[in-house]
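Check my protein:
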Amino acid sequence: MAPTAGKPAIIFLFMKKTRPRARPVTKPEIHQRFLDQLRQELDAITASAKSSFASATDEANRSEHKYDTFKLEESFLARGQARRVKDLAAALESLQMLPVNELPKGSPVQFGALIRLKAGSGTSSTLLFGSAAGGETLVVDGEEITVVTVQSPLGQALSGKKAGESFELKVGPALQTFEIFSVE
């Protein structure tokens, strides 16, 4: 609308209120969140294992006939949970010793690296290169971060690579190409 003679034009300016962008979560904070998650999982499975052991050894759960296998099943469950407790405790100890310092630009993938990569299909992934707890996943600010270890095929393919490099990995029956965007 054109201003009329002698009258100023009125201009409406709409400003969208935005929250100040929160600072990005640091690698040490991500590391701490993984440790907290593992501790919670360890506490839960420890309590469950103690309960299964108590149930398996309780005289009230004695077999009433030769086909009553409840006590046997509880002992198998308790044994499996005890193994899981041992594995989680070892993973927690290993992750506590993981170096989480920022890596200089151009560093290769190594223990403690935070890696961002993109598959040929277009999907992006963020990985924490660890020595244990492979497959553990954490969501931070809407971004899923997964621990990958050198024992996994993906970890073996990543080991020693640098940002900007690509590699191929057989995923199921297909060969996929991945590009490393950053190693932090």
About this structure: The chain has a mean pLDDT of 82. Helices lie at 27-57, 70-96, 153-158. Residues 137 and 146 are 4 Å apart (CA to CA). The longest helix spans residues 27-57.
